[in-house]
Amino acid sequence: MELIVRAVDVGSGNTKFVTAAAGTDIRCASFPSVAYPSSDDSPSWPASERKKTVCIPIGPLFYEVGPDVSLAADTFRAKQLHDEYTETPEYMALLRGALSMMKVSHIDLLVVGLPVALFAVKKAALEKAMTGRHGIGGGKVVTVGKAMAVAQPQGALAHFASEHQKMAIIGNEQSLIIDPGSRTFDWLVARGMRLVQKQSYSFNRGMSDVLRLLAAEITKDIGSPYRDYDAIDLALRTGKQPMIFQKPYDMKRLLPLAETVAEQAVSTMKEWIEAPHSLQNIILVGGGAFLFRKAVKAAFPKHRIHEVKEPMFANVRGFQLAGQNYARSSMAATGKERAQGVSGEIE
Amino acid sequence: MSTDHVKDPKPIRLVFELARADHPRLYDELIQFHKGTKRVNRLRVLAYDGLLAQSGVFAEMGRGSPHLPSASSAQEGNGDITNDLFAPAIDA
Questions:
Q1: Are A329 and B79 a contacting pair at CB < 8 A?
Q2: Which positions 176-205 of A are in contact with B (Cβ < 8 Å)?
Q3: Cβ–Cβ below 8 Å for B77 and A23
Q4: Contact with chain B for residue A265, Cβ under 8 A
């Protein structure tokens, strides 16, 4: 029987996960990384309104997660933006929310991601926490036979090699994967697909820093507290002016400020890269790729900067691909990791 | 293009023969329809869709969807290559 492999990438901005996979045809979905706590498992809206959320039991509380959580949540206090986020009940709720939306009762191999800087210190604990039984509410349980954690940008590398037909040669090449996410700016140097620890790192310089900085500038300008980060994010991505006090707000003068955050992050990263001339592939992924593109190109003027389609899902697609190959090559032969639970669809 | 063509566009009349050896996939598609209007209409639809695809119209439509599957040309690789993702990091 084919082993069931699934992947989840719990990011600070969005939780990305695989809903179905057959070879390279990998279907993904996502929801905001927001978990709204409550003391019972009833959703925060009337039963007559069907919304896409699930209530996940963690300890004494329930956490509502899912694509429609923004309709219920007080997002200001529900986000976890710190280095210990993998140990929080919110993280577990997001992961289990993703598991519940996969509609399987058993997973033979679950691949999850970690920011580069946390990878070495959190890997073992996260793999342990992910393995075993996960209550997903309503008396339903998903069992995970084996869990493996990788550094988040490693997934993007596997996805890039797959998409660019470089699987046969990537093992002999050096690559730099740059992953500006919601909270952290991650980069990873890889020889083949192996992480080079001393040249890879992540630090807190993500899109959330850009948004906070611009919100502070707008606050100063309008003389009133402004915290609509989503509106700023949309404005940066689309060029559409946010409405403030019923008028379109011109953000053009703030764009150089946003770009300085990207420039600082890229400049710090360059100090870690020992031999940029040896890099065959420079790959830019992540939800903040659009804002960091200019700074990355300026830092590596002699390189071609590769981007992938749907950069938000690049990591989780690579996790899935690598997980499938691992299951076929290292698990199927022995069958040791196969848990006793029966695999199948959850209603 | 001359202005005459724009002002008074004349219908284009095409008569041609298609052998399977020329375009097997196109031939197999058209042969499903019996002679006449249906076959011509199918050819017209295919040609126009091809024109839109060449102009990038279909690509634009697909770009907004967040859940598109990976391209079919993607390589799966194997454990010999991708298992290095799970190998210990290189310290040097």
A1: yes
A2: 191-198, 200
A3: no
A4: no
The answer to whether the pTM exceeds 0.95 is no
CATH class of A5-151+313-337: alpha beta
How far, in Å, CA of A56 to CA of A65, rounded? 8
Q: In chain A, which segments carry CATH 3.30.420.40?
A: 5-151+313-337, 156-206+256-312
A151 is written with which tokens?
């550094």
Q: Is the ipTM of this complex over 0.85?
A: no
pLDDT digits over B14-40, tens only? 887 888 777 777 888 888 888 778 888
CATH 3.30.420.40 correct for A156-206+256-312: yes
List A residues 112-171 in contact with B (Cβ-Cβ < 8 A).
119-120, 148, 150, 154-155, 157-159, 161-163, 165-168, 170-171
Cβ burial A59-98 (10 Å sphere, 16+ → b, else e): eebbbbbbbbbeebbeeeebbbeeeebbeebbbbbbbbbb
